[in-house]
Write a structure and sequence with these properties.
This is FHA domain-containing protein. It comes from Bacteroides xylanisolvens. GO terms for molecular function: ATP binding; ATP-dependent protein folding chaperone. Keywords: ATP-binding, Nucleotide-binding. The protein is an alpha+beta fold. The chain has 3 domains: 143 residues, ATPase, nucleotide binding domain (Nucleotidyltransferase, domain 5, 2-Layer Sandwich); 170 residues, ATPase, nucleotide binding domain (Nucleotidyltransferase, domain 5, 2-Layer Sandwich), CATH 3.30.420.40; 100 residues, Sandwich (Tumour Suppressor Smad4), CATH 2.60.200. It is 28% helix and 29% strand. It has 8 helices and 29 strands. Strand 10 and strand 11 form a beta hairpin. Helix 1 packs across helix 2, helix 4 packs across helix 5 and helix 6 packs across helix 7.
Length: 471
């Protein structure tokens, strides 16, 4: 499988992994195991990316792009260049570095990890796919980020059953928790996720910078506007240092010291972290699980290095009589160490290795795709996105005035074992989609789930129309 690379395209930093001598290996250009997800668009034909772009930030701030992962479906309005071209340049750079690490051998197949909330119809997937092809890859596959992290944990455990895992993914821009059933640890099953919580490294960095800015203003020694990027980067490094040290001090552009201790950082970010726990509560409720059902919480992402994250998790677990649940940031298993910073890209390589192993095994009888039963009508689902609503433009339309024109979708895809998975997502801006007569998927209620994995026999209600799902 030596011509695969897994790329975790992140908000602030990206990472890549390849397989060397049968084991996942991080790609580390210049001995640094990540790629800043940044670009400087100097002209339509000149885009500098990743490590090479960082020095351009202060000189060409109007042409500098960063933290744009979730916005790639929009236009950056930057020297006439769209995000597809920017992403392609970043992927091309990572591809080249990965091939150097691969002893010069070509890597023409890529697995891109994506947030759990992306469905088949999400235009950001199309942009990523086209960008990867533009970068020189011939084969492009996608894998949900929490599933990739679960695969990394499964690989480290060497197929020992791990039970129910909560993936606590706190990176640069958003918090994306997911629930994985790892009873068969070499086949993690996706049970559900939550999304949209704006919490992560960039918000923590901004909070420290704003505090420094306020203190400077109160001293009547404001920061130098032209050096705001330097000050912001200094505040970011100060925040990172507080994961290891109880306090730290930096010099800012006004030639004054700015100091912050860990308690001060906790005060700045504590309310944001509380939102992540509320999102986990909502996700567990959606899946009809309790905190006591969880075997371990897998920490994923650089922002989980902040000590307050583990502290708040321990307190939350204790408040739910679940103090026995393990919080895993680092551990050693049969196949090495769990790496919370790079679990996603390392897990992607473990996943693709397992997938290829299964393809080499004799194939089983073809599994049939499930159906929805509505009265006497049978809705035969297809692989991909199936749309339901009152509009005749939907795949399945119904003359129910209480149903929205586009009410819900069911995304049908194969998991790593070749079996079909079914993810129902509400699309109505006004009305909930009811699952099993008690769970409301709702776009307008904070922390209400938007999607859930369907199990055999589940019921769905849209308006007054009821469906039953059968595999």
């Amino acid at each position: 499988m030596g011509n695969w690379v897994c790329i975790d395209f992140g908000t602030c930093n990206s990472a890549a992994a390849i397989e060397i001598d049968g084991r996942p290996k991080l790609v580390s250009p210049n001995n640094v195991p990540f790629f800043p997800t940044v670009a400087c668009v100097l002209s339509r034909d000149k885009i500098v990316v990743c490590q090479n772009a960082e020095s351009f930030k202060t000189h060409y701030p109007e042409s500098f792009l960063q933290e744009f992962k979730l916005d790639i479906a929009n236009s950056p309005d930057c020297n006439g260049v769209d995000y597809q071209k920017v992403v392609a340049e970043i992927l091309r750079y990572i591809k080249g570095c990965s091939e150097v690490e691969n002893n010069g051998a070509r890597l023409d197949r890529v697995i891109l990890t994506i947030p759990a909330i992306y469905t088949e119809q999400d235009s950001r997937k199309d942009i990523m796919r086209l960008a990867a092809l533009d970068a020189g890859f011939t084969t492009v596959e996608f894998l949900r980020e929490p599933q990739a992290a679960a695969w990394h944990y499964a690989y480290i455990n060497d197929s020992h059953s791990a039970g129910l895992s909560l993936i606590y993914d706190l990176g640069g821009g958003t918090f994306d928790p997911a629930l994985m059933d790892m009873g068969e640890v070499d086949n993690p099953t996706f049970l559900g996720c939550n999304s949209g919580v704006k919490c992560g490294g960039q918000y923590f960095d901004a909070a420290v910078y704003k505090k420094a800015q306020k203190e400077a203003k109160d001293m009547d020694k404001p920061l130098v506007r032209e050096k705001r990027w330097n000050d912001y980067e200094a505040c970011k490094k100060l925040k990172e240092s507080l994961s290891a040290s109880p306090s730290g001090t930096i010099m800012l552009s006004n030639d004054e010291f700015f100091s912050l201790n860990r308690e001060g950082l906790n005060a700045l970010i504590g309310e944001k972290l509380d939102l992540t726990l509320s999102a986990c509560d909502s996700m567990l409720k959606t899946a009809h699980k309790e905190w006591t059902h969880i075997n371990q919480v897998l920490l994923v992402g650089g922002s989980t290095s902040i000590p307050l994250v583990s502290e708040k998790l321990r307190q939350h677990l204790a408040s739910h009589n679940a103090s026995e649940v393990r919080i895993i940031r680092s551990m050693t298993g049969i196949n090495g160490e769990y790496n919370h910073n790079y679990a996603v890209c390392l897990g992607g390589i473990a996943y693709i290795e397992r997938l290829l192993d299964k393809q080499e095994q004799p194939s089983m009888a073809e599994e049939q795709i499930g159906i929805l039963i509505c009265g006497n009508e049978v809705c035969q689902l297809k692989e991909g996105v199936n749309t339901f609503g009152r509009s005749s433009e939907q795949d399945f339309s119904f003359s129910d005035p209480a149903m929205s024109r586009e009410h819900f979708t069911i995304d049908v895809s194969r998991n790593s074992s070749g079996h079909y998975e079914y993810l129902v997502t509400t699309m109505s801006q006004k009305k909930a989609t009811i699952i099993n007569d008690r769970l409301a998927l709702n776009l307008n209620v904070p922390f209400a789930p938007r999607n859930i994995a369907l199990v055999d026999g589940a019921t769905i209600q849209a308006g007054v129309t009821r469906f039953q799902f059968k595999k």
